[in-house]
Specification:
2 copies of one chain form a homodimer. Chain A contains 7 helices and 2 strands; from the N terminus they run αααββαααα. The first copy, chain A, has 161 residues and is mainly α. Chain A has a two-stranded antiparallel sheet. Chain A is elongated, with a radius of gyration of 19 Å. The two termini of chain A are 29 Å apart. Chain A binds a DNA duplex (30 and 30 nucleotides) through helix 3.
Chain lengths: 161, 161
DNA sequence: TGTAAAACAGATTTAAATATCCTAAAATAG
DNA sequence: CTATTTTAGGATATTTAAATCTGTTTTACA
């Protein structure tokens, strides 16, 4: 048996569930000025409708979506998908501090800890942030149609294990 | 307001709470053959005693600790701290798949997804795993006494932002 | 022996994340 | 202007992780 009594069943995602849903929803938003229905989108994603609606609302408040009520209404992007980065989406959903400063829980956010993996963690956070900032919704959309994997040159340097 | 209605308050740690507690506890285990009390250790960490006891039990099952009951009893390391890596601890507490394969939730564990940040995420996972495998409990202990930060040469390559 | 101190193991409780429901407000179409 | 369709937003329910509690077993020592 590998799992201890106190919890720890599933592998943990780096982001909260609503953040992942937000990304999946935004990728499927029309690029033209058309409005899309929350209910419609929820069905495609296999998500509970009213729950997705909440997330779309949050994205409206963050300025990434705009909404229209009534018939012919729905949600649409405020900008073209190539001008919305994953970083913006994550910031909107997770807040300005997406992850803990110390992997081991040594220090609160903003504080300083001195464990030896701290500098490595800082570097990883920086790399991840950069990748998120360099990837747009358009890139995600393109990847869905053509399943190729363009390797990131920045990261290729460190790749050989 | 940045936080959406459906959840998302705190910055999320990459590991579950019990995993972080396990690391904090192991670092404070005596290196000689002495047994240490769970209650005692819990007090030092500011953790609920019986909860920490569960975690120590799990570490016993994983073979990282051994226990002795009765008076003069407690817990001790099965190996010298320089021969226990953080990776072993994380595997023991989180299971063989510490994090999701796809950051955006596109694919289940083991499956394949094609989003453009996938290769970057794979690289980051590899780097993190390597750092955890290269860092021992002894390193953590040393860092606590002498708060210096020896930069990891592997990661320094990718550092300049 | 018998008593006290400790880990052990299961059940239970609390809190947080996730998901659902329900009524109101806005916009369109007839 | 009324009925219908949609988002808005608060309240509530469900699920999962985190923490606590209760009693049992083992060990040392008097």
């Amino acid at each position: 048996m590998n799992h201890p009594q106190p919890g720890c069943p599933h592998p943990r995602s780096l982001f909260h569930a609503p953040t992942r849903y937000a990304l999946q929803a935004l990728v499927r938003m029309p690029g033209d000025g058309t409005y899309r229905l929350a209910r419609n989108l929820a069905a495609e994603l296999g998500l509970p409708g009213p729950f997705l609606a909440k997330i779309l609302q949050a994205l409206c408040h963050a300025g990434l979506l705009e909404s229209l009520r009534g018939p012919t209404g729905g949600f649409r992007l405020t900008r073209a998908p190539e001008h919305i980065t994953l970083r913006e989406v994550v910031l909107a959903m997770e807040g300005p501090e997406p992850f803990e400063d110390c992997l081991l829980g040594h220090a609160a956010v903003g504080e300083d800890c001195h464990c030896p993996i701290r500098p490595a963690w800082d570097v990883l956070q920086t790399l991840l942030t950069r990748v998120l900032a360099q990837t747009s919704l358009r890139d995600l959309q393109a990847a869905q149609s053509a399943p190729n994997r363009p390797e990131d040159p920045d990261l290729a340097v460190a790749a050989p294990v």
